[in-house]
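Pipeline run #58 for the internal structure catalog. This entry was flagged by the ingest filter as a single-chain record with no existing model, so it goes straight to prediction. Upstream metadata was stripped on purpose; only the residue string is passed forward. Reviewer on rotation: M.T. Logging verbosity set to normal.
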Amino acid sequence: MTCSAERQTEAVRQSALLAALRGAAPVPSVRLAEHGARLQLGLEAYRAHAAATAERALAAAYPTLLALVGAEDFGRLARALWRDAPPRRGDLAQWGQDLPTFVEAQADLAEWPYLGDCARLDAAIVRCEGAADAVLDRDTLGWLAEHAPDTLRLRLAPAVQLLASRWPVAALHAAHRHDGDAAVAAVREALAAGNAESVVVARTGWRAEVTPVDAPVFAWMQALQARRTLAEALQRAGPEFDFNAWLLQALQRGWLWKAELVADIEEKHHDPDLA
């Protein structure tokens, strides 16, 4: 057999083996039939170990979802996700982003429609705590008094995550963290009232904090995250937005990184040597 044919056979064998490990195909017969029952037992042990590892990885990333559905149902979700959308990399920390959408597609969980957004908030917290750090550039904030709003942009800290939900996700998250009667009562009241919540997830030190914000503040921060000028962001936020109150809160909670002059950004964009 030529080297090329041998490589092709080996590629087929590996593809079939991976499919078998994921439970997507029967045990491959190419060069494996001689192992018989021993191979089958090995594959089953690997599948069980992989499913357990996937469950532990997701439980660490989605603690609120775990608390809401319980360990048994969470394990079932983790194993089902591993079968339907298995990891494509060796690092399981990079896997599981599809879980919020996957949860929403489960017919037996339709009675709790807020689970998907609770999972999205968990994921936002993971991204926040893993994001690059950024030190506030206080010198650039002086430009706010020196330049027109249509010539400036404000940059949020890289760790900042935004989430708008039809459900009281901040209250649900708080109930999971504090696990007290008052927190649980607040969740029940918010769900009964049909309260929606928009939240900012940001980091103070290395710990993420979840802060509910009103619609004008959320629209403003969405515009900043989309790199809009201050003039455009103010227009999106509307007349009820209080910039001075937001700036104080942003400085206290670590939301803000720096200000930028639009002209400088455009110049760097057109001249790569300045970037």
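catalog note: The longest strand covers residues 197-204.
catalog note: Residues 113-275 form one domain.
status: ready for reviewer M.T.
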